[in-house]
Known about the structure:
This protein is mainly alpha-helical. It contains five helices and two strands; from the N terminus they run ββααααα.
Amino acid sequence: MSEQFTVAGQSIPTITTGYGGFLVLWGILISQISGSESVTSYFPSLLGLPLLISGVLAGKFPEKRKLWMHIAATFGLLCAIGGTRFFMVMSDGINYASGSMLMLLVTGSAYTYVCVQSFIQARKAREE
């Protein structure tokens, strides 16, 4: 069987945990810095929490890694889809809200791409 898929020397569960933690912190910090009273400013945190949990559980329970990583990939895709709202508000300029949307679009797309590459490599490794 081939070696585990890594990006910059990090396993996908580790990347997932880091990305989830980043999103949780981003949502909290941006909401506090901007003084927003809207629950929607915590949207990155709400998407990041399941990613963080999935990454931790995929690392702790290798026999269920496939399940947890598919859940994580789904939330990564939701990040990218949620970020597409940036195109509806970009004419207003970059502010805290539109910046968060752009961040979700870029990072969610990149994370989803990495997950798909990992799934492809895992399938090839199983076929060997």
